[in-house]
Amino acid sequence: MLRAANDTVERQNEYVRKLNEQGFDYGLVVGEAFVRGMRDIGYKHTGTALDEDIDNAIEAGAENVHVVFGYGKDNGSESKPQMIAVIDDGHGMSPGMMRAAVLWGGGHRTDGNRELFGRYGFGLPSSSVSQGRRFEVYSRLTGGDWHMVAIDLDDIKSGNFYKENGRLAAPPATPAKLPRWVEKEIEQHYGKAGLTHGTVVLLSKLDNLTWKTTKTLNRELSEHFGVTYRKWLRRVNIYVNGIKVEPVDPLFLDPTARFHEENDLRAVPLPDTDIEVKDKESGKALGLVKVRYSYLPPGFQNVDGRVGGSRNARFNVMKENNGLLILRAGRQIDVVSAKCPWVTFVNYDRNWKVEIDFDPNLDEEFSITTSKQQVVLSDRMWTLLEQAGVHRAIDNLRKRYTDELAVAKEKQEQPEENEPRTSEEVMADSEKYKTKKAEPSPEQKQDREKEFKRKVKERAEKTGKSEEEAERDVEAEVTSMPYKLSFENIPGGSFYRVEGIASQVHLIINQAHPFFTSLYAGPDSTPRSRAGLELLLFVLAECELDASLERQLFYESERREWSQRFNTVLKLLEKKDPTADEASARAERAEVEENAAAVA
User: Fold this and answer.
1) Rounded to whole angstroms, how far apart are CA atoms 270 and 186?
2) What is the 3-state secondary structure (H, E, C) of 336-359?
3) Residue 584: closest CA among 401, 458, 425, 454
4) Average pLDDT over the chain, rounded to whole?
5) How far is it, in rounded angstroms, from Cα 284 to Cα 278?
6) Which of 126, 130, 173, 129 is nearest to 155 (CA)?
7) Which of 483, 575, 473, 580 is nearest to 535 (CA)?
8) Helices 46-59 and 214-228 sit at what angle, rounded to 10 degrees?
C-alpha cells in the first residue's frame, strides 16, 4: 500500500516537473489533455459532427455545401474514405480569423449573438477532432488567395504546438494550394474558375467514423442532413458526394419531402400550437415556440400499408425520431424521449410525432449542450407546453393509435366472407359434447323469431333483395353457422352482447370498449389468445340464451356492471403493467431482424 502511494506521488512529481520545464503558466486548460477530452465531447455520430461545418457554412451565407470523400493512392476500390472535406461557397475568412476559428471558443459569434446556430465557438475544432487526428481549414475572401491552417493531434502530442510558456498555440494561417483531389471536386461542382470565395474543412487521419464505407456514408449522411436541415434546404443546397440532399420530414407532412408517397397512407396533421414565452418578471416577450403534430396510421411504415410485413423506407426515419423533436431556429437538435415527464416512449409511439421549434433567444429554457447534441427542457418550459395542450394532444394521439391498431389487426385477420372463424367452428364441434340441451320457452322462441325477422328485413334493405330472398339467405346462414361473431362500435356500451337469431348464437364484441383495444386485440394479443377469448364469450353468451327469462335479465344487468368495472381495471392495468412496452420491444426486435439485410 505504501509503495503504491509512493509510486503515485512520484508520478505526480514527474508530471509537475514536465509542466515546469515547458514553462507552463497554469492557465485553466492543460493543452494536450484538453484536446484529448474534446475528442470525446459526445457527438452522436459522424453526421452530427459534420453538422457543425454545415452550420458554419450557412452562417457564412453559403448557397451550396458539398460533403465529399477523399482516397489515398493505395485505395483502388474507393470503398472506404480516408479523408472527408466539407466545401462551401460562403464569404470565407481572413487569415487572422482562420487562426481564431480553429481555437476552442475562437468564433466571432461567441458574444451573445443568437441569430442562427453558433454560440460558443467550439463547433469546428470539436467536431473535427472527434472524427480524425488531423484537420485543415482552407479559406479565401473575394479577391484574396487561399490560406490554410492545420491542427494535427500527433504533432500536439510530440510537443510541436507548444509555446515557451507551455501553452498550446494554433499556428498562423499561411498561403496554400488546395489538395489536388479537392480542386477536382470544386471544378466538378463550380466549374474551371473554382471558388472565388469560400471555405474547405478537410478531415484526415480518420479513426472514429461511425460509418466506414462510402456506400453507408452516402446513405446515412443524406438521410441525416435531410432530417436535420429539412427547413433550410429551400435556402441552401447540401450535397453528399455530388448527390443533392432532399428534405426528410419526420412528421411526413411535407409533400415535397422524401418518403411522402411510400404507400397509399398519409400523415394526418393536427392544428399547430404557437406559444409566446415571456420574461417572468417584466412580462416582455422573449421568443416563440412553434409546435407541430402529425398522426401516422397503422401500416404507415409497411410496404403495402397493412399492419406487419415488410417495412418501407419510412420505417428508419420513424424509429430514429421516436420522441419529441426539438428544433432551434428550424434546425433539428435532439429527439427527447428519456427525459419527457409525460411519456415513457415505446416503439408503438413511432406513429405520432410532435415537433417543437424554438427561437434561439429561448436557449436558457432548453439548455443546449456545447456540442448541440442534447437539450434539457426547463421545468417552466414543460409547464408552458402542458398548459398549451401538448400533453393532452400526446395522450389523444397515443390512444388513437392504440385503438386504430387494434381494429386494423382484427380486420386483417378476419376470414374471407362465408369462411368460419376458428372459435365458431370449435363451438359448433362442441355441440355433440353437450350433456344438457335447454329447450327454449315459448317466450324465448318468440324473441328469437323476432330477431330472425329483424335480420331478414335488415338484409333486404342492405342488399336490395326481396324479403323472400333475404329470408332464404339468413336461414341458410343460421343453419350453416350456429355460432357467429361480429363487431360493433358503441362508446359507453357493454364489452360484448348476445343475440339469439332463431337457433343461432350471435356474439357481438364492442370495439369501443377497452376490452377490445387493450386485451382482445391489444399489443400482446395473438390469434390464439383472441380465439380463446371468443370461446369464453361464446360460452357465456350461450348460457345467457339458454337461461330462463328471469336469469336473462340478470345477465343483461350484470353485463353492464361487468363492463363498467372492466373499463376501470383495464385503464389501471395500462398504467401499471409493462406488457405493452414488452410487446413493443418484441415487435421492434422482429422488425430489426426483418430489416437487417436492408440496412446493412
Assistant:
1) 44
2) ECCCCCCCCCCHHHHHEEEEEEEC
3) 401
4) 85
5) 5
6) 129
7) 483
8) 50
The per-residue pLDDT for 444 is 83
Residue with cell 340441451: 437
Q: How many CB atoms lie within 10 A of CB 403?
A: 19
Under DSSP, is residue 197 helix (H, G, I), strand (E, B) or coil?
A: coil
Task: Tell me if residue 255 falls in helix, strand or coil.
Answer: coil
Question: What does residue 147 show for φ and ψ, rounded to 5 degrees?
Answer: -125, 160
Sheet holding 132-140, edge to edge: 174-175, 147-152, 132-140, 198-206, 83-88, 64-70, 237-240, 243-244
pLDDT given for residue 45 in this prediction: 93
Q: Is the predicted pLDDT of residue 2 greater than 80, yes or no?
A: no
Cell digits of residue 478: 343460421
Closest to 357 (Cα-Cα) out of 259, 233, 272: 272
pLDDT band with cut points at 50, 70 and 90 for residue 576: low
Residues ≥6 apart with Cβ < 8 Å to 480 = none
* Cell numbers representing residue 123 in the block: 463547433
In contact, 366 and 41? CB cutoff 8 Å: no
Question: How far is 42 from 130, CA to CA, in rounded Å?
Answer: 8
Distance between terminal CA atoms of the chain? 51
Torsional sign, CA 332, 337, 341, 345: positive
Residues 6+ apart with CB under 8 A from 558: none
Query: Could you tell me which residue, 455 or 289, shows the higher pLDDT?
Result: 289
Residue 24 or 517, more confident? 517
Range list of β-strands (E), 60-146: 64-70, 83-88, 132-140
Residue 253 near residue 354, CB atoms below 8 Å:
no
197, 57 contact by CB (below 8 A) = no
- Which ranges of 229-333 would DSSP assign to H, the alpha helix? 314-320
pLDDT at 27 over 50: no
List Cα–Cα distances, 248 to 196, 226, 233, 256, in angstroms: 32, 5, 10, 9
* pLDDT on residue 393: 97
φ, ψ at 501 (rounded to 5°)? -110, 100
> Nine-digit cell at 484?
357467429
Residue 80 in this model has a pLDDT that exceeds 60: yes
- 549 with 443: CB under 8 angstroms? yes
* Residue closest to 530 by CA, chosen among 379, 423, 391, 435: 423
Phi and psi at residue 424, to the nearest 5°: -65, -40
- pLDDT over threshold 60, residue 597: no
pTM above 0.70, yes or no: yes
Say if strands 243-244 and 324-328 run parallel, antiparallel, or are unpaired.
Answer: unpaired
- pLDDT (tens digit per residue) in 337-372: 988 999 989 888 999 999 999 999 998 899 876 656
Q: What angle do CA 575, 581, 587 make, to 5 degrees?
A: 150
- Burial classification of residue 484, based on how many CB atoms lie within 10 Å of its CB (0-12 exposed, 13-18 middle, 19 or more buried): buried
Q: How is residue 240 written as a grid cell?
A: 453528399
CA angle 493, 495, 498 (to 5 degrees): 95
Could you give the dihedral angle defined by the CA atoms of residues 283, 285, 286 and 290, in that order, rounded to the nearest 10 degrees?
A: 130
Nearest to 103 by CA among 66, 132, 67, 129: 129
Query: Is pLDDT of 149 > 60?
Result: yes
Within a 10 A sphere around the Cβ of 383, how many other Cβ atoms?
Answer: 11
User: For residues 572 and 115, which has the higher predicted lDDT (pLDDT)?
Assistant: 572
Instruction: Compute the distance between CA of residue 523 and CA of residue 536 in angstroms, rounded to an integer.
Output: 20
